[in-house]
Amino acid sequence: MFVWSYWKTIFTFPASPSNEFCLSKADKEQYEKEERPESQQEILRRAAKDLPIYTTTASRAIRYCDRCQLIKPDRCHHCSACDVCVLKMDHHCPWVNNCVGFSNYKFFLLFLMYSLLYCLFVAATVLQYFIKFWTNELLDTHAKFHVLFLFFVAAMFFISILSLFSYHCWLVGKNRSTIETFRAPTFRNGPDKNGFSLGCSKNLREVFGDEKKYWLLPIFTSLGDGCNFPTRLVIMDPEQLTVSSQNEPAKSSGANQSFPPRPLSESQNRLLASDSQWVESGPEEESVKSGAKKNIIVSLES
Q: What is the pLDDT, as a whole number, of residue 242?
């Protein structure tokens, strides 16, 4: 399992945004001709109006990659080492010589876990010989130096991997990436490190999938497509609920950044099923109550 997870982490190519996030040929030519940033942002806003994007830069601008010439989806970043935009990029790991992101983040976590168990197994099996060496009960052979070296290497890697694995377990529970920990994503209401957090249980399912029998296997079971992520900040926005229920045009925020209503993917519907039902029940109940009040008023007047 250790070798399998390590292999999958190394050779799984980082997922990149789909073609829908690329500018059309006409928009690309117009964008390159424009010299004013305001005009360029207007072109990007027009191209991104139907895309599932809810985060912007700190200056409320559309996140655009000049290197890859595409609009960045939420949680997507450009890796200078791989020279490609990576979906839900966490970091570029030199130990696996690959970017850790949406396509292989589960494999990376399993690699850390099985590495931790492997180091623990080696240290535990060598411990008895290390104790004999310490008490001078081990035979005077060259093997005792190998035992000493093996124990210290296993213990050293165990401690270092334990700290890294614990940190990433905390990130999974908070539904954050390493990049988002140091630079919070900016939503319409401002920066929020917990903007994508749905609760510890749902955050865990977003990475490992719905079926627990596949959690410990290095096979891809993560929910979603890597381009669109459920967030309470958007789903629970009353303005968005009103727009989505009445199919009205999208409204813009005060910073000229539009956030049109977009349908949830299948994975998002599963993760937010209970929340969306609770939120959407409010306007329906109010409409029923208002309709009942109107009927009572009409009957009294008649």
A: 40
Chain-centre distance for alpha carbon 240? 22
Contacts of 215 (CB under 8 A, 6+ apart): 208, 209, 221
Look at strands 70-71 and 77-79 and give their pairing: unpaired
Q: Which tokens belong to 208?
A: 């490992």
The one-letter amino acid code at 229 reads: F
Length of the chain: 302
Helix (H) or strand (E) holding 56: none
Which band of pLDDT confidence, cut at 50, 70 and 90, is reported for residue 261? very low
Q: Using DSSP, state whether 48 is helix, strand or coil.
A: coil
Q: Is 189 helix (H, G, I), strand (E, B) or coil?
A: coil
Higher pLDDT, 266 or 231: 231
Cα(44)–Cα(59) distance, rounded to whole angstroms?
14
Backbone angles phi, psi at 246, to 5 degrees: -105, 0
Task: Please give the model's pTM, rounded to 2 decimal places.
Answer: 0.76
Here the tokens at position 294 are: 């109107």
Residues that are catalytic: 93
